[in-house]
Design a protein that fits this description.
Structural class: alpha/beta
Number of helices: 13
Radius of gyration: 23 Å
Largest sheet: 7 strands, mixed
Strand order of the largest sheet: 1-9-8-5-4-2-3
Low-confidence stretches: 390-397
Distance between the termini: 36 Å
Shape: globular
Order of helices and strands: HHEHEHEEHEEEEEHHHHEEHHHEH
CATH architecture of the largest domain: 3-Layer(aba) Sandwich
CATH superfamily of the largest domain: Type I PLP-dependent aspartate aminotransferase-like (Major domain)
Helix content: 25-40%
CATH topology of the largest domain: Aspartate Aminotransferase, domain 2
CATH class of the largest domain: Alpha Beta
Strand content: 5-15%
Oligomer: single chain
């Protein structure tokens, strides 16, 4: 059987208009390595828009998480509370320092860490909580911050999917001790590969600059605060090229415009598929009170894994690329090595088996989106007809 060619991809990088112009400007300034003029422009724009104390661009959200783990001095013997329903970078970052993940189940509604299950996982070894804002919808940060304060724990927000999203009028990434953003090509605002560290406690700012600059005080040198720079701490090369920052700045300038486009796409999916939820055929995303999402993705949950996989095949046969999402970390080979087993986190495992993500990118047309919606509805119509035919066959005997 000939494999179908996808007419509608799951993701497509989108451009705001000034990317090439700004890249040329960066090149004309004879500075295309890290911390050039466009890197500084991105820092200033993000700090101003999000009311953040300090934001530093990194080469990825993965590296922002690693930088955060070094800043917090996470080490062997420490424990970090984290959801299993996340990308591996969330956990890799502190495991590289020797710390151990303590997985907590997620909520059925938001797919975020269940804040009511965190406290029972805290031990004398617990050093931090790494909440993940799934799909750009906030965790219950009030409760998480209260717990952190009670037990004197750090909070690192994995806001990879949540740039420009809010919780009670505070931007995600700016609430915890530290926050981490992603500008990967699959995110709302992109530069191919990139990220940022948000520093909400001023005591970490100077050391963050040092670690980010290979363990040197180079940033202080360029500000004229020291007459030469030297090696003063551990670190790595976490600076993205200014070419990438130039590309990103063009995107960040249009944050509000991009957000409106994504809200329209999200709302169209939600309103058009709502009738299927009312018939109890699917479950749609839930947005908690106080949360202002950034419309990072659109997902839905099917009745079971088989039905989810059948719908993926149905859409693929019609030229539409849809995908499942995270395989729970606790059920992975590494999770097994850490002593976890299938069945440990029932909600996480259930959601992972039933969740389906639909094509979502800024340039998807209304016609393309309506085609996706139509094929989803057709799947359930054909399924209903099939069931009815089976019933009539049974009745005929």
């Amino acid at each position: 059987m000939k494999k179908s060619i996808c007419r509608i991809p799951f993701n497509k990088p989108s451009f705001s208009g000034n990317e090439l112009k700004y890249i040329q400007e960066a090149m004309s300034n004879w500075h295309i390595s890290g911390d050039g003029q466009f890197t500084k422009k991105c820092h200033e724009l993000l700090e101003k828009c999000f009311c953040a104390k300090k934001i530093l661009l990194t080469t990825s959200c993965t590296h922002a998480l690693e930088l955060a783990s070094i800043l917090l001095d996470l080490k062997e013997g420490d424990e970090v509370i984290v959801p299993s329903f996340t990308f591996v970078s969330t956990v890799d970052a502190f495991m590289l320092r020797g710390a151990k993940p303590v997985f907590v189940d997620i909520r059925k509604d938001t797919k975020n860490i269940d804040e009511n299950l965190i406290e029972e996982k805290i031990t004398k070894k617990t050093k931090a909580i790494f909440p993940v804002h799934y799909a750009g919808i906030s965790c219950n940060m009030d409760r998480i911050m209260d717990i952190a304060k009670k037990y004197n724990l750090y909070v690192v927000e994995d806001a990879a999917q949540a740039v420009n999203a809010q919780y009670k009028n505070k931007y995600l990434g700016t609430i915890g001790t530290l926050g981490c953003y992603s500008f990967h090509e699959t995110k709302n605002y992109i530069c191919g590969e990139g990220g940022a560290l948000v520093i909400n406690d001023e005591k970490f700012i100077e050391r963050a600059e040092i670690i980010r600059e290979k363990g040197t005080n180079r940033s202080k040198f360029f500000r004229g605060e020291v007459d030469k720079y030297t090696w003063v701490d551990i670190g790595s090369s976490y600076l993205p090229s200014d070419i990438l920052a130039a590309f990103l700045f063009a995107q960040l300038e249009k944050m509000d415009e991009i957000n409106k486009i994504r809200k329209r796409i999200f709302d169209n999916y939600f309103n058009s598929l709502n009738e299927l939820e009312k018939k109890d055929l699917i479950e749609l995303p839930k947005i908690s009170n106080g949360c202002t999402p950034n419309y990072h993705m659109f997902y839905m949950l099917l009745k079971n894994e088989k039905e989810r996989d059948n719908l993926i095949k149905h859409l693929d046969s019609n030229g539409i690329k849809s995908v499942f999402h995270y395989i729970p970390l606790h059920t992975s080979p590494m999770g097994s090595k850490l002593g976890y087993r299938t069945g440990d986190l029932s909600v996480t495992e259930d959601v992972s088996q039933r969740l389906l993500r639909l094509p979502f990118y800024n340039e998807i047309t209304e016609e393309e989106q309506e085609y996706v919606i139509d094929k989803i509805k057709n799947y359930f119509v054909s399924k209903s007809v099939s069931v009815d035919n089976d019933k009539s066959k049974i009745c005929s005997y």
